[in-house]
Amino acid sequence: MVYLWGIQAPRPGQPFGAEATEAAGRICGGKRLHVAARRAGPEGRITGSVVAEETGSPGEDTTGKDTTGKGNAGKGSSGNQDVGRALIRLGLAWQDQRGPSSARLRSLEQEARREEVGLWQQEAPTPPWAWRE
Prior knowledge:
Layout: E1 2-4, E2 7-8, H1 17-28, E3 32-40, E4 46-53, E5 81-82, H2 83-89, E6 94-95, H3 103-115
Parallel strand pairs: 1-4
Antiparallel strand pairs: 2-6, 3-4, 4-5
Helix pairs in contact: 2-3
């Protein structure tokens, strides 16, 4: 298991928890995943950045250009997608305020808040580190 560096997604049972899990599955499904480990913790717990690589098939557009009008959450110009960035951009995760993060993640979260996407549709979403079932 790899924990995504710099983000915190809603927990199972928490509002938008299932949506975050489903979105991560869609982003990663059927793709080659590249993990850049940033640290290893107890019991082999790895925290790192994960990029879902577009594998493509002959004739398939893997450029990352948006032809759907839905945006390219977390996609680079090659069509590869950083999973953590994508979840934040979709409003399905917070940038982790309890540990190291990046200016890019903070910027993506602010954009999702302004656009009121995902969990930012709620009046006062509770971050996972403060949530109690």
